[in-house]
C-alpha cells in the first residue's frame, strides 16, 4: 500500500482502489502460505474458493510462486512473485504493474517472463517456478 500512497503523493498518479485491494490480498495470501507451508490454503485472490496446496522445494532449492491479474476496465496487468525456501520461509517478493490488455493466460505468461528475469537478477540458480494458470 505504501507504493500506491507514494505514487499518489509524489507522482500524482491515482490508482484504482480495487488494484490496491487485490495487491494487498495477493501478498496476504503469500504470507499465509509462507507461514503454513504444509497446510491447505484457499485461494481468495480471484474469488476462487477451491482448496490449493503448496509443497516446499527440495533442500537447497527455492520455489518461486508467480501470479497475475488482468484489470480490463483500467487496462492494467498486475503480477507478483515470491521466493520461499525448503522450509517455506519467505525470502523475497516482487510485484509489478503494466499498462496493456491481454487475457489471463497471456498475463500469466508475461508474469512468468518477468519472474524469470527477476530471479536471474537475484543470482538464484536452483529455483522451481510454480504458476496457477490453467
TrEMBL record:
Pfam families: RVT_3 (PF13456). Residues 65-133 form the RNase H type-1 domain. InterPro entries: RNase_H-like_dom_plant, RNase_H-like_EbsB-rel, RNaseH_domain, RNaseH_sf. It comes from the Eukaryota. GO terms for molecular function: nucleic acid binding; RNA-DNA hybrid ribonuclease activity. PANTHER family: BNAC02G40300D PROTEIN (PTHR47074), RNASE H TYPE-1 DOMAIN-CONTAINING PROTEIN (PTHR47074:SF54). This is RNase H type-1 domain-containing protein. It comes from Stephania cephalantha. The lineage of its organism: Eukaryota, Viridiplantae, Streptophyta, Embryophyta, Tracheophyta.
Amino acid at each position: 500500500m505504501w507504493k500506491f500512497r507514494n505514487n499518489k503523493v509524489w507522482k500524482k498518479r491515482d490508482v484504482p482502489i480495487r488494484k490496491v485491494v487485490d495487491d494487498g490480498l495477493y501478498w496476504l495470501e503469500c504470507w499465509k502460505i509462507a507461514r503454513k507451508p504444509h497446510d491447505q490454503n484457499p485461494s481468495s485472490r480471484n474469488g476462487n474458493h477451491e482448496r490449493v496446496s503448496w509443497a516446499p522445494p527440495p533442500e537447497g532449492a527455492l520455489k518461486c510462486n508467480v501470479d497475475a491479474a488482468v484489470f480490463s476496465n483500467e487496462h492494467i496487468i498486475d503480477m507478483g512473485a515470491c521466493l520461499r525456501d525448503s522450509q517455506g520461509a519467505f525470502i523475497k517478493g516482487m510485484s509489478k504493474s503494466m499498462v496493456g490488455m491481454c487475457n489471463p493466460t497471456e498475463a500469466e505468461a508475461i508474469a512468468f517472463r518477468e519472474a524469470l528475469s527477476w530471479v536471474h537478477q537475484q543470482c538464484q540458480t536452483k529455483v522451481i517456478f510454480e504458476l496457477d494458470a490453467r
